Backbone:
């Protein structure tokens, strides 16, 4: 049995419209927040409660189809996917926070064509809840078999629930497992490509994102190259990690290169404004031996050595011949010197 989520996109991130509706044409219903003392046309459920506090609210389900619609209703914890999107646990999966603390007035709802139904719920924070941020969703789900495809399709629509439990907030973000790799180049005067990987770990108790900056440089800061157009990291819930890999081009092979990662944590407050924390750093080093340049240098050096050796050899042989002639001349007895041509002839 295979479970496919056809409408999960409506659960990701902060909703930008009051009603959530999937692009899937088989989804004939919408969900939105109820209007009341807590506000109207809200894009999501956003609460601030102290430990032991509770709040009542409601989800509105509208059926735009031609037939009655029976939907399952459940709450679930949220998490950040590998793609950096917000999603929630599927039905039947145990939750530990919002999905456990939120109790809907029903576990299923039937909505007639053209009608709407309110689904009331209560969110109760345990007395021993740790201060900080929590996220989840209240979900409506329609599970149907697709006999032709041999699968079960679970179409889900819901509204995100963001909760901040009162107490001391301690936002914190760490950069860990920094690694630098380098791919050389066959061009003896060219640059290669590097890759910097690291992990962002939200070690605090608030939701946090991060502005990122990555540089690769040679010894003493020479040949510094910046990674271009790094996006802001996705919002990470407390305890979550995010793996990052950054390609860096134009890295000079300067024997020993280093990567410097600088991350500025960004936190969003209750009013929706952002503030930044002190930057956190991470570093790594890697060998980047300029093999192509060394090969050229060795070849040039060998050629120079060969030319000098030949020249030295020739000079040595010429010196030997001159020395031999001198020795031969010195070895002749006096008067045995060759008589120049024409010498002693009568005039």
Residues:
């Amino acid at each position: 049995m295979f479970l496919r989520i056809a409408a999960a996109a409506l659960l990701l991130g902060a909703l930008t419209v009051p009603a959530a509706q999937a692009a899937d044409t088989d989804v004939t219903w919408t969900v939105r927040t109820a209007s009341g003392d807590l506000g109207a046309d809200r894009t999501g459920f956003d609460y601030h409660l102290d430990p032991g506090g509770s709040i009542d609210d409601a989800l509105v389900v509208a059926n735009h189809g031609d037939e009655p619609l029976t939907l399952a209703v459940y709450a679930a914890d949220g998490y950040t996917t590998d793609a950096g999107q917000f999603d929630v646990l599927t039905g039947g999966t145990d939750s530990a926070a919002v999905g456990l603390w939120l109790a809907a007035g029903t576990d299923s709802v039937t909505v007639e064509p053209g009608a709407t139904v309110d689904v009331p719920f209560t969110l109760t924070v345990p007395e021993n809840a740790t201060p900080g941020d929590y996220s989840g969703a209240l979900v409506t789900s329609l599970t149907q078999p697709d006999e032709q495809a041999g699968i079960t399709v679970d179409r889900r629509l819901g509204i995100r629930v963001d909760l901040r439990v009162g107490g001391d907030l301690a936002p914190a973000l760490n950069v860990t497992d920094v690694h630098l790799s380098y791919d050389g180049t066959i061009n003896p005067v060219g640059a290669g490509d590097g890759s910097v990987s690291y992990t962002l770990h939200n070690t605090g108790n608030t939701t946090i994102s991060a502005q990122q900056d990555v540089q690769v440089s040679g010894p003493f800061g020479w040949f510094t190259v910046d990674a271009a157009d790094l996006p802001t990291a996705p919002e990470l819930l407390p305890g979550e990690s995010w793996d990052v890999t950054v390609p860096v081009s134009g890295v000079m092979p300067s024997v020993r290169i280093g990567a410097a990662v600088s991350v500025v944590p960004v936190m969003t407050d209750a009013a929706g404004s952002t503030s930044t924390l002190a930057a956190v750093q991470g570093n790594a080093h890697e060998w980047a031996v300029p093999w192509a340049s060394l090969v050229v240098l060795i070849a040039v050096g060998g050629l120079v050595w060969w030319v000098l050796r030949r020249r030295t050899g020739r000079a040595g042989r010429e010196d030997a011949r001159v020395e031999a002639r001198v020795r031969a001349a010195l070895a002749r007895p006096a008067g045995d010197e060759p008589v120049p041509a024409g010498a002693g002839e009568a005039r």
